[in-house]
Amino acid sequence: MRHKLGTGKDMDGVSTSPQRSLIAPDNPEPLWVQAAELIERQVREGVLPAGRRLPAERDLCTQLGISRVTLRRALQHLVERGVMRSSHGRGWYVAARSDREWPNSLESFTETARRKGLVPTSRVLRAEVKHASLDEADEFGVAAGADVFLLERVRMLDGVPIAVDSSRVVANLVPGLASVDFSRASLLDELVAAGAEPVVAESTIEARGCAPEHAEPLQLEPGDPVLTMSQTMTDATDRVVLVSTITYRGDRYRLRTSFVRGS
C-alpha cells in the first residue's frame, strides 16, 4: 500500500511507504516526531522541492492519521529547523535553500549538513590527550591534570571550509577517542554512544577578526571577519561533557533565533 499527500489538482506532495516512513502509533517516537521526519526526508530527497506548498492541514491530518495539534507541532519544529516556512492565511511552504540557516536547536555539524543535503567532512589538525589546565579542570569539574581529549578540525561542507572547531572532552568519559577517525566521524555521535549525550548548550557568539592561525585553514586573510562561538554542553545530569570554540567564516554562517515578548 502507498499513501500520497496531495496539493491541489496534481496531488503532488509527500509520499510514504510502510517499509520506510509510515507513521505508526506503536512506534516509541512521538507522532509529531515521526511526521516531522517524514516530511523532512521528502524535502531532503527532492520529493518536496523548494517553494512547494503543502496540502491543507485537514488533508494532511487525514492522510497521516494524526491530529491537527500533532501536525502543527511537527510543522513548527520544521520551521525552527529552517526546513519549512509558514505564510499566515496561506499555509506551509518548503523553505528555499537560502532560507535554511544554521538551526537554533542543538544538533551536530554532521546532522545539520546532512539535513541540508550537504556532505560533511573534516581535516584533523590536532587529536591528542593532554593534561587539564586549572581552567579546564574548573570547566569540567575534574582534578587539575586529568586527561582531556583535544580535537581540532577544519569543518567542511561539500569540500568548502566553513569553520575551525576546537573541542575538548574529559578522556575517561569516552574511552578510545584518540583512535577514532574524525575526518568523517562525529564527536557528538561518540558522546551519545558512550551514554553522555549533550542536551543543553550554553553558547556565546562574538564577531572578531580572523586569528593568524585560522587564516590558512579558512582560506582567509588575518583580520577578515569571523564569528566565534564558545559552547559548553551538558548532559541530562547537568554534567559538562563537551567544551568547544568554533570559528566560522563570517560569510558562510548565519544563526537564526526567535524572541518572544513576555506577558
Key structural traits:
single chain; 263 residues; alpha+beta; 6-stranded antiparallel β-sheet; two-stranded antiparallel ribbon; 7 helices; globular; disordered N terminus
Mind describing the biggest β-sheet?
6 strands, antiparallel
Cα distance spanning the termini? 49 Å
* SSE series: EEHHHEEHEHEEHEHEE
Please indicate the percent range of residues in DSSP E strands (runs of 2 or more).
Answer: 25-35%
Query: Which class best fits the helix and strand makeup?
Result: alpha+beta
Task: Report the total helices.
Answer: 7
Spatial shape: globular
What integer value in Å does the Rg equal? 21 Å
- Estimate percent helicity: 10-25%
Q: How many β-strand stretches?
A: 10
Annotate the secondary structure layout:
Blueprint: E1 3-4, E2 15-16, H1 31-44, H2 57-64, H3 68-80, E3 84-87, E4 91-94, H4 109-115, E5 120-131, H5 134-140, E6 147-157, E7 160-170, H6 187-193, E8 200-209, H7 212-218, E9 225-234, E10 240-249
Antiparallel strand pairs: 1-2, 3-4, 5-6, 6-7, 7-10, 8-9, 9-10
